[in-house]
Amino acid sequence: MDLQGKRVVITGAGGGIGEGLALEFKKRGAASLVIGDIDGEHANRVASEVSGLAVTVDVSKEEEVKTLVEESIKVYGGIDLFCSNAGIFGRPGFMKVSYDNWMQAINTNIMSHTYAVKYALPSMLERKSGYFLFTSSAAGLLSQIGAAPYTVTKHATVGFAEWVAITYGQRGIGVSCLCPQAVKTKMTENGAGVAGINGMINPQECAESTVEGLSKDTFLITPHERVRKYIKNKAEDYDQWILGMQNLQDHFKDWVNKIEEMDYQ
Fold first, then answer.
1. What band does 198 get if pLDDT is binned at 50, 70 and 90?
2. Segment 57-72 mean pLDDT
3. Which of residues 263 and 80 earns the better pLDDT score?
4. Is 12 exposed, middle or buried (0-12, 13-18, 19+ CB in 10 A)?
5. Is the confidence at residue 36, as pLDDT, over 50?
């Protein structure tokens, strides 16, 4: 996808990866940018920087995503690229993760993507052109030690992105799935833990890598290139990969022990 002249919607764009995408897309010539975020103040700040439209949206709520899509089409006439980026880490651990914790992660990290496609796709199919960028994580390809809901929901994001690409790819719909390791955002402000083993990148670096992937219509965008080696190793010997992850967990035992204390206290 060439971003020049494109009408773009980004959720979770009030900071972090989403803000980085907005700033980079503006530099690359996007015609319009809709900045969606649960924090209206943050959305307005970023929108003012990119001359875009700010929309306050809780992506875990279907009606709010529907309104975001409708408002974007009303103001700009259509959506060329929908970046379903908003997500949460959620509660770490497993034993003390409540039903409400699980549903918050599921609704924010999975259902938000389904809502985006449900409402943005029809107009794209009509003109046989459109693109979705789903933000997952390297955890969606591998695992996130110490965080069951995050791991499960990010895996589901990759699965849904694959399904959309398979189902609509021959009808003019492009799909990319962004799977970084640690990025310097609010989510990692207290440290990246295991995810930072290969170093943290900043949102701008993540955005630049994303633009490169989009320009080649690459499905799987991995700003940390070692992730591709990890998934290759996983595919070649699953049992050995699990053993390696267990060893990695031992390496971060102090961090893991803190989570276990939360689980069993």
1. low
2. 99
3. 80
4. buried
5. yes
Confidence of residue 192 (pLDDT cuts 50, 70, 90): very low
CA-nearest of 196, 84, 188 to 138 is 196
Q: What residue type is assigned to position 242 of the chain?
A: I
Residues 206 and 20 sit within 8 Å (Cβ to Cβ): yes
Domains of the chain: 7-264 (3.40.50.720)
Closest CA to 229 of 188, 191, 197: 197
Residues 6+ apart with CB under 8 A from 237: none
Radius of gyration of the chain (CA): 18
Instruction: Answer positive or negative: Cα dihedral of 220, 3, 107, 188.
Output: positive
The count of C-alpha atoms lying within 13 angstroms of the C-alpha of 74, restricted to the half-sphere facing its C-beta, is 8
Q: Span 173-193, mean pLDDT?
A: 77
150: left (phi over 0), alpha (psi -120 to 50) or beta: alpha
